[in-house]
Inverse folding.
């Protein structure tokens, strides 16, 4: 499954971006996780809207939202494994601008990283780390301690 984190707004060069690149590299090196390609991309409203409109059984879209479903890392893995077992080819995760998501996402599944509020750049790092954790759990790597 191809996984893309779509970021509305700017993606500045900063330590958080470097951390995301590190996790991206690690995720893409893990074979047999089910992730064929993990990427982080700055996107416009227009690009995101067109991806949402093309949503089908092989393309899923998750929105990070403070009112979204809270889950543990293991529960997050179960969501991802469900997509993998249902033959989802592309998974998109949207991180909105600091003011929130600027497009209508009513028909998209929503998840929350925490009840806390994070900066845009830190949310990216946390999401990347959770995908790395997810890949290690799927492949029985000892990174995640139960």
């Amino acid at each position: 499954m191809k996984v893309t984190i779509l970021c509305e707004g700017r993606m500045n060069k900063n330590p958080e971006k470097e951390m995301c690149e590190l996790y991206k590299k690690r995720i893409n090196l893990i074979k047999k996780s089910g992730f064929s390609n993990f990427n982080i991309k700055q996107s416009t409203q227009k690009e995101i809207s067109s991806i949402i409109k093309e949503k089908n059984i092989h393309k899923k879209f998750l929105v990070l939202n403070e009112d979204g479903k809270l889950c543990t890392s293991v529960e997050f893995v179960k969501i991802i494994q469900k997509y993998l077992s249902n033959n989802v080819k592309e998974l998109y995760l949207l991180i909105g601008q600091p003011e929130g998501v600027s497009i209508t996402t009513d028909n998209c599944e929503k998840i929350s990283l925490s009840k806390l509020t994070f900066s845009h750049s830190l949310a990216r790092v946390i999401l990347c780390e959770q995908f790395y954790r997810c890949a290690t759990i799927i492949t029985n790597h000892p990174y995640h301690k139960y």
